[in-house]
Each structure stands twice: as C-alpha cells, then as structure tokens.
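Quick check before the chapter quiz. The format below is the same one you will see on the exam, so make sure you can read both the input and the output lines.
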Amino acid sequence: MPIPKAELHLHIEGTLEPELAFALAARNGVELPYADTEELRKAYLFDDLQTFLNLYYELMAVLRTERDFEDLANAYLARAAAQGVRHAEIFFDPQAHIARGVDMGTVVEGLWRALGSSETQHGISTRLILCFLRDESADSAMATLDAAKPYLDKITGIGLDSAEVGHPR
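Here is the expected output.
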C-alpha cells in the first residue's frame, strides 16, 4: 500500500493522458495532429517549460463540455488515489478555455462534478484553484475573475501560471 501523500500544486489540464485525449477528441470531433497514442506519448518528452506548454495548450482543444472536464478530473483522481494521494490542490486555467469559447461554468461545473465527490469516490479531499495566465493582460485576469464570481463557493484560491519568459511575476 502506498504511503499517504498530498498533491499541493497540480495543473489539471496537464494530467491529460494520451488515451483520454484521443477518446475526448473522438467524442467531440476534434482532430489531433498525432497518428495514435504512442506518437502523442512521445510528444510528452519535454525539453523545457515552453515545450510542455505548447502541448498543454494544444491538447486543451479536446476539452469542450462539462463531461470532458469531469472525465479529466476523475481520471486524475483515480490515478492519484492508486498512488496514495489523500489531498489534492488542483489548479485550472479558465482564461485558456474562455479564449477557445468554453465558458467558465462549463469548466468549473465539470471539474466540480468530480471534485465534489472525490472524498467519497476516491478518498481524496480537494481544493480548486483558479489560475491567471501570466502572459495575458491584467484586464483579461479581471474579466476572468468576474466570470468566476458565480462559482467562488467552489474556488479556494487564485494562482498564476503559464509562460514565465518575459512574465516573471
């Protein structure tokens, strides 16, 4: 049995595994630029943060519906539980989804479907942390915060992430 752990800094979109990426792509009619899961898995060999971010944002295209976000979170929670995780603080990037036409409610409600029952289903307590993209404007962050207001009962905190080069704060 694995020792109990806490996952204190996890970006949920970064947990998307190739098999789920292809399943969601098929469900949503999204074509991925990879022949199969093995080719995509090879793309997970990152050289630096920007290489990771390029794939991270590219794969977000498959996340379209509440069910997609729920499936993403549940897949992570199942893997985490098997590894002994008992608490997870989960970051998410609503600006990137909103820019693709996916509204805040779709993202938060989908994630919350999994997180709201994570203690019962997976034995993991969770907290949801909204992140602002450091390479976007302060106005974009404020618009994102405004969009999040109806969901603040589900959001524990605010974080900052994405490209660091030229955006050190």
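If your answer matched, good. The chain has eight helices and four strands.
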